[in-house]
Amino acid sequence: MSKLKKTADIFEKSMNAVFTFCGFLAVAFVLIITGFLVVSGIPAIKEIGIIDFLFGTKWASTAAIPSYGILPFILSSVYGTAGAIIIGVPIGLMCAIFLAKMSNDKTSGLVRSAVDLLSGIPSVVYGLLGMIIIVPIVREIFHLPDGANLFSAILVLAIMILPSVISVSETAIRAVPKEYEEASLALGATKTETVFKVIVPAAKSGILTSVVLGIGRAIGEAMAVMMVAGNVANMPNLFTSVRFLTTAVASEMSYSSGLQRQALFSIALVLFIFIMIINLVLNFIVKRGAKDE
What we know:
Layout: H1 2-48, H2 50-55, E1 59-60, E2 67-68, H3 71-102, H4 105-120, H5 123-141, H6 150-174, H7 178-186, H8 191-202, H9 204-219, H10 223-228, H11 245-252, H12 258-292
Antiparallel strand pairs: 1-2
Helix pairs in contact: 1-12, 3-6, 3-9, 4-6, 5-6, 6-9, 7-8, 9-12, 11-12
């Protein structure tokens, strides 16, 4: 018995060491990425000037007299992500409610399989479908010379965030104790009232987490956005071609050099800081919501 216990203790300590190593490895990766972006991005910001870089409205990195203003990229990323959340979150939440509370097992299994399939589709396929289907439709409906614009990018991003929003929201809704629903129905509330006034508020922490994941997916997307947004460094307008922070890096990195290349690393640094701030703020909201519950 003592030999078995000794073996079990060795195994336990070994697994603890493995788990600890993996935990610190994840932290190390984040620190390495942060350090690399800071070291690579700061020189260009110093040379260009932080005000001119962040608030300049013209990006012309290959011109005879280059300009490196990234305000159009920042605003395009903010507007595109906000638009995708405004469209995608309500649709995803309604679908999650349908799967968790309204549908039968057969229907929910079918819809859930479709959602899982959506999450596995590569970004380039979303971009291709958006370029072939959404861009021409937007052009025809709004009588535009070109349908590759911010609105088309918002529609594609809204579709892309649906799997994250639906899956996490459904899990959160299913985790609400059954007693909440039964008590509400017993007091005379309808099923719809119970869902929106009892279950959804009780699951708000999980729903907010799905929004965090959706924002991360939307703001970090490059390939699909590049194919449907027009990829032109304009100040953002709903029906003009725009370039996001991610697409600015992806579209020029292959042929960049010198200050242009350093400026692209600076854009990556700004995007990294931007995502960190969003995650910190939303995680704070999620934790605060959990405490209030």
